[in-house]
Write a structure and sequence with these properties.
heterodimer; A: about 290 residues; 12 helices; globular; disordered N terminus; B: about 290 residues; mainly alpha; MetI-like fold; 2 domains
Chain lengths: ~290, ~290
């Protein structure tokens, strides 16, 4: 983009951007081509915390078995958006939403749909690693299965190994699976949490800034892991780190003040964004 | 150097040091005065009680009036029995109530529940005895170990409930979210993740409550009543250390007075032991986090 907006970020924020932006987000809404399988089909989605509206009229199709990065400055609604995808936002009292959210065709908010059932298929990894302190490494990985009634020892053993392999942690912990999960390093703990999420065999994995508390080496390992996950899983990752979004995602969605400003192939978003606000953000001029 | 604006004059420094010493001395005296009663209690119990503590005291029943010797074996076993029965009543009610307060209740309901628990905590122990007398003694026409256990159990409920609530709230929200994100039902998440993480704190609360009720006499006066023999049936009156101490202390016999002191020493040792367990448990918890 050759013409840069002169206005500073604060002015941009206060300007009534919605008029000029709505056509753009509508134009990019149907982005995945028809041949591509859609994991999340979200239309006209708005969400309120009490009287405050956190998300405004978001329409987006997130492709299956690809990595979609959600970027945007703090408070833009990206975490709220992510948590709505497996109804974790319901832990916050006083939320209300409108619009339609479908996961592989199933309505997430239909009458009688249980959040528990959704979360088995849409797992989540959090910003701060949170292995259960009372449990060993093995127990941490298997807790989701055990609490959902899986008793078969052979199945549990197989899932334990498979999940730890997928999370690229097996080689580091295979000799001390009975140590407490909290005895691992920060990066290992986060991979343990990923293994724990994968053990219940979700279709989709949501990651809420999974590397923001990790050092660069541990971050590199998780990013590498995300690359292998995309073969089997749909990954949606919220990140503050622009390089991370550019490195490891196929699609990028830019949120700003509760709106989806631009959504597209990651390469285009970072080299040739069509919206001046996106360009200002990805080039580090605000946010 | 004397000109430095950061240094006080010598006289001023001396005056300040004197003030500091005086105030520190007052505070030390106050602190000693606070713990002095504990040492007085231990001193008197050891002086008067230790000479009467022998093997018989722990193994024999009380001797009939007029005979010397005998022991409080039945009262020691009775107190342990009553504490166990009180736990059966008080721990489930208290822990489940605490779980409700920490995990389920609305702000409004919780305000009322906490207020009720605090009032309950302040109900005089003799009132508990009278209430349970009407509830369990009058209808069944007999004083019983059950009635004593229930009276003590009711006293435990508010204590256990509030400590359970407090330690459950300390469990980080991130563990709850992690469990829910695995598609685990809420009640399972609470039981397996939250309660298990806080288990040591809950156990500490239970033991504090036990230490609190172990020495209660008033709730047992109209319920467990006391018994000079072994209790073979929980539907019948049962002996308890505080009751036995009370009965012996107001008796006119020197030998019984000696035994009352010995009983008080044993009861105090039991409560001290419970408190030491609490210390060890809670120190462990602090180190772990």
């Amino acid at each position: 983009m050759s013409t840069l907006p002169e206005a500073p970020a604060a002015r941009q924020a206060s300007e009534p951007a919605r008029v000029s932006l709505t056509p753009q987000s509508a134009a990019t809404a149907g982005l995945p081509v028809d041949s591509e399988e859609v994991a999340f089909d979200i239309r006209n989605f708005s969400l309120w915390y009490g009287a405050r509206q956190a998300l405004m009229d978001v329409t987006i199709k997130i492709p299956a078995r690809k990595v979609t990065a959600i970027i945007g400055p703090s408070g833009c609604g990206k975490s709220t958006f992510l948590r709505a995808l497996n109804r974790m936002h319901e832990l916050t009292p006083g939320t209300r939403l409108e619009g339609s959210l479908r996961h592989f065709g199933q309505d997430l908010y239909g009458p009688g749909v249980e959040a528990v059932a959704i979360r088995r298929r849409v797992g989540m990894v959090f910003q701060k690693s949170n292995p259960f302190p009372t449990m060993t490494i093995a127990e941490n990985v298997l807790v989701g299965l055990r609490l959902n009634g899986v008793r078969d020892k052979a199945v549990l053993q197989e899932r334990l190994e498979k999940s730890l392999h997928m999370a690229a942690l097996w080689d580091e912990v295979k000799d001390h699976l009975n140590r407490p999960g909290t005895s691992l390093s920060g990066g290992q703990q986060q991979r343990l949490c990923i293994a724990r999420s994968l053990a219940v065999q979700p279709q989709t994995l949501l990651m809420d800034e999974p590397c923001s508390a990790l050092d660069p080496l541990a971050t590199a390992k998780i990013e590498e892991l995300i690359q292998t996950l995309r073969q089997d899983y749909t990954v949606v990752i919220v990140t503050h780190n622009m390089q991370q979004a550019a490195r490891c995602s196929d699609r990028t969605a830019f949120f700003y003040m509760g709106r989806l400003i631009e959504y597209g192939n990651t390469r285009n978003m970072f080299t040739n964004p069509s919206n001046p606000q996106t360009e200002a953000y990805v080039s580090g001029r605000f946010g | 150097m004397a000109d430095s604006p950061y240094l006080p004059t010598e006289a001023f420094a001396r005056w300040r040091k004197m003030k500091s010493t005086a105030v520190t001395a007052v505070l030390v005296v106050c602190a000693l005065a606070v713990i002095a009663p504990l040492f007085l209690v231990i001193y008197f119990l050891v002086v008067h009680g230790s000479s009467s503590i022998d093997w018989n005291f722990f193994t024999q029943l009380p001797k009939p009036t007029g005979e010397t010797g005998g022991g409080m074996a039945n009262a020691i076993v009775g107190t342990v029995t009553l504490l166990a029965m009180a736990s059966i009543v008080g721990v489930p009610l208290g822990v489940l109530g605490g779980i409700y307060l920490a995990e389920y209740g609305s702000d409004r309901a919780n305000d009322w529940l906490r207020f009720a628990a605090d009032v309950l905590n302040g109900v005089p122990s003799i009132v508990w005895g009278m209430v349970v007398y009407l509830m369990l003694v009058v209808p069944f026409k007999t004083f019983s170990a059950y009635a004593g256990g229930v009276a003590l159990g009711f006293m435990m409920v508010p204590l256990v409930m509030r400590t359970t609530e407090e330690v459950l709230i300390l469990v980080p929200q991130s563990y709850r979210e992690a469990a829910l994100a695995l598609g685990v039902a809420r009640w399972k998440m609470i039981m397996v993740i939250v309660v298990r993480t806080a288990l040591k704190g809950i156990a500490t609360g239970v033991i504090v409550a036990l230490a609190r009720i172990a020495g209660e006499t008033a709730p047992l006066l109209f319920t467990a009543l006391g018994n000079n023999f072994w209790n073979h049936n929980l539907k019948e009156p049962i002996a308890a250390l505080p009751l036995q101490i009370f009965a012996y202390a107001i008796s006119p016999y020197d030998d019984w007075h000696r035994q009352a002191w010995a009983g008080a020493l044993v009861l105090m040792a039991l409560i001290l032991a419970l408190n030491i367990i609490v210390r060890v448990l809670s120190r462990d918890r602090i180190h772990k986090n």
